[in-house]
Amino acid sequence: MSLNTVKDLDLTNKRVLVRVDFNVPGAKVIMAPDCVGEEVETLAKGLKSGEVLLLENTRYHKAEKKNDKTFAKQLAQLADVYVNDAFGTAHRAHASTEGVTEFLPSVAGFLMETECTFFDKVLDAPEKPFVAIIGGAKVSSKITVLESMLDKCSTFVIGGGMAYTFMKVKGQTVGKSMFEEDFLETAKKFLDDAEKAGVEVILPVDHVCATEFGESATPVAVDSVNIPDDLMALDVGPKTSALVKERILEAKTIVWNGPMGVFEFDNFAKGTKDVASYVAACKGVTVVGGGDSVAAVNKFGFAEQIDHVSTGGGASLEYLEGKVLPGVVALRK
Questions:
Q1: Full-model pTM
Q2: What is the set of domains in the chain, with CATH numbers?
């Protein structure tokens, strides 16, 4: 189903309740003492054309997270139309994201529309080859993404701390690197399923390691897949980057969620920086979602060269997992 958007409505002389995810509004505003109540209603009804009333944070009310209908109705009484432009909170069934839509004509804002358009494009009808780059610390937090994208992808690139659980399954030594004992069987099943489906899974083939986890730790290059017992891997090595580069540059669709290593530490940032540069150079459709990978493309200066850098951390992850986002469903036709 397509989204109802602001383009579908005539907003002339309408009071519009906009759910946003701003840090700074960037415009002159009237500050409301709360987000509901008689005083706020009076301020809202007194607005002139072009004026903006900034409501207090809805989360100061416990009713927000409970998706309380009475609270949602109070919010709705402030306006004629509701616009949700906060994709980053669309995975939450709260009063200001879902409940309010029961009481007002409700549409998506421009940012929400862009987010959904890009994610729908790469998940519903991706051009092949489709490469999913999935990183981060834990298999447990990303396994649902891997499983849900298995029937769509040509290649998975798996990096970050989660890669070492998969390496362990394959009988490779991981030294002191973190891995999840409880998810070894889950990781094995995914690798087996990928093999049966003819989907390539790229894991690190070399590493940048250290004897301890820390910003000042001395990097040690390990030019083989196996990690010595006294070392922990904190980044992928140059051979892995070269292998990944080849797949990324030939891709027609890229989704990246999660870094390749501990990019916050300069000594262990190169793998993630390399991947960011390859994604930026890819001629296909490129989408980056998830807090850490978004932080990485911004840190390394590649955000402007990527088709879509998502504003949603948890929301983008749940979209990739194939989950229904309450705040989005409420805006569907």
A1: 0.92
A2: 6-111 (3.40.50.1260), 118-320 (3.40.50.1260)
